[in-house]
Amino acid sequence: MTSPSDPRGALPARVLVVGGRGFVGSHVVRALVEAGAAVHVFGPPMADDLLAPLAGRFEETEGSVEDRDALARAIAASGAEAIVTTAAYSAGRQGLMRSGDEAADKALAVNVAGLRNVFEAAREAGVARVVWTSSTVVYGPADRYGPERVDEDAMRAPVTFYGLTKVLGEDIAQYGRDRHAMAITGLRLPLVLGEGLWYQGAASAIAEIASAARPGAVHAVAFHDDPMDLMHVSDVAGAILAALRTPDLSAVYNINGFTARLSDVIRTAEARVPGYRVTHTERPAANTFPLIDDARFRRDAGFVPARGLDEVVADMLTEEV
């Protein structure tokens, strides 16, 4: 979030949100609407209507990022001064990384060619400001890095196809900045938690601890206990709005909420629910990632996340009541 006295620029009055019905995108739409922006959503219909509470408060065009003409029509209809894109390929509910590995062609079509379509349609329409969601999975295994947190200068060395698509997306974004002087900024998201998480993966294992929480209940989880960078989805939306408000940002930033182990999440949930106990069987992580340094974005955008471990666990438990 930013302070009311923050000297940075005003939020664009009209914003197109590509992928606005997804997990992260729906929270961006909510934050923009609540901030008074006119919002236009572009993307495919979704099985879960995460925007139901906002019915009537935004405009919408259905379509795919694979269709540049449809994107152009949506930009024209929206009158957008800026674009946010959170679009990424997921096959059903299996999650982004697994989907990328199992359907590489489709992941390339959406995450790379589709992202380029967004940039090109924006350029052709004269919309220079684009904020998009990259990921900290652009980094390689944790043991390739030193003991310190990694910043934006650290090498990218993805070990998943989803991570590779984000690396390619970052390169395309840099090209748009260099060749066409576009104000494109990517935010590398860590593991994101919060209301509306509908796909499986590491975040869903954490969310299940909250969904199983009842007085006297016992829940079993098999998961690693390595430290993880985590962020509440509403803080991700806040970071995106901060980026929209801030001129002259760099091409890419790490963002983060807090760092915790699964055992920290378990202890926090158990402390809040009388008699609730979680049995935790530790198993090696399928993929390991270095912990990230997000100091540059905090400095450049004046952003400070609102939710730490206690607040995020409390929110997840409240959602399940």
Write structural notes for this entry.
There is one protein chain. This protein has 10 helices and 12 strands. With 321 residues, it is α/β, with parallel strands linked by helices. It has a single domain, classed as Rossmann fold (3-Layer(aba) Sandwich). The protein has a 7-stranded parallel sheet with strand order 3-2-1-4-5-6-10, with helices on both faces. Strands 7-9-11 form a 3-stranded mixed sheet. β5, α5 and β6 form a beta-alpha-beta unit. α3 packs across α4.
Task: Kindly summarize this structure in a few lines.
The protein is an alpha/beta fold and 321 residues long. 39% of the residues lie in helices and 18% in strands.
Number of helices: 10
Specify the CATH architecture: 3-Layer(aba) Sandwich
CATH superfamily: NAD(P)-binding Rossmann-like Domain
**Number of strand elements:** 12
Q: Round the mean pLDDT to the nearest integer and report it.
A: 92
Distance between the termini: 27 Å
- Assembly type of the chains comes to single chain
Give the % helix: 25-40%
CATH class: Alpha Beta
- Tell me the count of domains: 1
SS content category: alpha/beta
Which regions contain 5 or more consecutive residues with pLDDT less than 50?
Answer: 1-7
CATH fold type: Rossmann fold
What's the Cα radius of gyration?
19 Å
Adjacency order of strands in the biggest sheet: 3-2-1-4-5-6-10
